[in-house]
Automatic annotation (TrEMBL):
Positions of the Leucine-rich repeat-containing N-terminal plant-type domain: 23-62
Keywords recorded for this protein, A-Z: Leucine-rich repeat, Repeat, Signal
InterPro entries listed in its UniProt record: LRR_dom_sf, LRR_N_plant-typ, LRR_R13L4/SHOC2-like
SUPFAM superfamilies recorded: L domain-like (SSF52058)
Protein's name according to its UniProt entry: Leucine-rich repeat protein 2
Signal peptide: 1-21
PANTHER family on file: SOMATIC EMBRYOGENESIS RECEPTOR KINASE 1
Domain Disease resistance R13L4/SHOC-2-like LRR: 66-170
Originating organism: Elaeis guineensis var. tenera
Annotated Pfam families: LRR_14, LRRNT_2
């Protein structure tokens, strides 16, 4: 009984302490690191014993010690993208380009409600573009080019009214290119070299996913 009371007060303390709640963001990043191969030791400073991840290299926090940037472009890391990344509620910049990230893009990344920029280009990602990205209402830059992504471009993305740059060139996408919302402004080069992607949708026609 005393033991249970102790446990409950410990859990209350955990819930109340901001230091520990930011350390849960450290745990998220450690989950990413745990699955990666890091031959150039770029993640060496990711020390779990620190009170939060804000002093780690490639991680930037705001004044409240919340992670707002993850900068691992051209870092020679390989492995899967951890779904846990979706818990970084204040993340604005997810910069993971030019590595050997592989496997599917976790749909949990659609929970990054503060995200402004997601750069996953130049990896070996496969599978589809998650429909959950339609929840990224602050997103301005989405670059997924030079991967091995397949499937169609989710129509749901036409609701991303802040999206300024969208690049899915050099993948294996199929279907048609949406024309509504921000898609009215993206140049055709953003869609280059997807052998089964068939031009912009025709106005007024229900999109038909050729070969998808
Ligand atoms: C990248 O990793 C490979 C091993 O996978 C290693 O041989 C190479 O030296 C690394 N490149 C850099 C720039 O660290
Ligand atoms: C087209 O995209 C594929 C997949 O990313 C890539 O391997 C290939 O080199 C690209 N081809 C050209 C001409 O850029």
């Amino acid at each position: 009984m005393a033991c249970r009371v102790f446990l409950v007060s410990f859990l209350l303390l955990l819930a109340a302490s901001p230091a520990i709640s930011t350390n849960s963001e450290g745990a998220v990043l450690r989950a990413l690191k745990a699955r990666l191969s890091d031959p150039s030791n770029v993640l060496q400073s990711w020390d779990a014993s620190l009170v939060n991840p804000c002093t780690w290299f490639h991680v930037t926090c705001d004044a409240h010690n919340r992670v707002i940037r993850l900068d691992l472009g051209n870092s020679n890391v390989s492995g899967p993208l951890a779904p846990e990344l979706g818990h970084l509620q204040d993340l604005q910049y997810l910069e993971l380009y030019g590595n050997n990230f592989e496997g599917r893009i976790p749909e949990e990344l659609g929970n990054l409600k503060s995200l402004i920029s997601m750069d996953l280009y130049g990896n070996r990602l496969e599978g589809g573009i998650p429909k959950s990205f339609a929840k990224l209402k602050s997103l301005r830059f989405l670059r997924l080019n030079n991967n091995k992504l397949s499937g169609s471009i989710p129509r749901e993305l036409v609701t991303l009214s802040n999206l300024k740059i969208f690049d899915v060139s050099n993948n294996d996408l199929c279907g048609t290119i949406p024309i509504d919302g921000p898609f009215a402004t993206f140049p055709l080069q953003s869609f280059d070299n997807n052998s089964r992607l068939n031009g912009p949708e025709l106005q007024g026609l229900v999109p038909y996913d050729f070969g998808c």
